[in-house]
Request: fold
Amino acid sequence: MVAVGPDDAAEKAAWLSAVEAVIDQNGYCLGSAVETFENSCKEQLDVEHAFGVSNGTDGLKICLKASGVQPGDEVILPAYSFFSTASVIRQLGAHPVFVDLDPGTLCIDTALIESAITDRTRAIMPVQLYGQTSDMDSIMKISSDRNIPVVEDAAQSFGVRYKGNSSGAIGSAGAFSFYPTKNLAAAGDAGMVVTNDDKIATQIRQLRVHGDTGGYCHESLGWNARMDGFQGAILSVKLGRLKQQQDIRERNATEYLRALSENNLLDRIKPLERTPGSEHCWHQFIIQTDARDLLREQLASRGIDSGIYYPGTLPSQPCFADLPSAQKHFPVADNAALSVLALPVHHRLNEGDPSRVIKAMADIMEAAPH
Reply:
């Protein structure tokens, strides 16, 4: 929802200096710039292992395989997320098993997980959607009771903690995306995989370089999923500014919530609830409303951007039509696909901008029939 690049001349100069250092070192694939970024992330996230990878999708695929998912296995996931959450499962020859959402947060409904478990269930994959985590205590209890690994799709929640533990590292492993619209944004595609499990870390390290165990010896099939040095260098620059930018996102979200209340819009425009115990990085500020299409059209006419994440459920995708779980009903996910709207919340907004967005929405709603 916003073009991502250097915020100012000083940051642009820092990018160019970082890229120049990569050129001087010939560190184009992995290399010292990526290693520096990985070490910084390990410290900031308080995790044992962090691996820079080519993108968040490859990171998810590596997490699943490193956690033991094989062809024919089943992976439980929410019915509503970005496409890659489900596609990576299918690409491994495993089967996505969809469950509906918690209506307040639109994260996975943990009360539905148990009934979806079979003797072929090999992993549970919660999505830390829009910038906050799922109810991880409930998920980890199921994991412990049933001895099923948890792989976190943490693509949208870098730096978020749940009851003190880093998103992505609560389960067996987790993947982040640094796609340019994320709160920590690369200058292109990039991602990261984190884990606190030494054995899984060994698998991840090999899988991101074709399964190479060293000396061109391949005991398993992996992928070419390395982070390139340019992205590692730029991400280190961006990481240094993340705290300041996150504070602005938090300010913007707080202003949205206050303005919605002050303009008496909460009867027709519902912000998402917060997962108890979870921080929020506000990757998106999401509202739900039955006037979604009208609002989006009218906001655009006033020069105000908005987005729909996502306009359809995962089970409704044609490539999943043959899955047994795709034939079930997912009323909360279906409603989300029809009602969610993302409002601008990025760090380039000025104080007062969210209030002006909400005032415009109030004017639109006042003129619209109920």
Notes: The first strand starts at residue 49 and ends at 53. The radius of gyration is 21 Å.
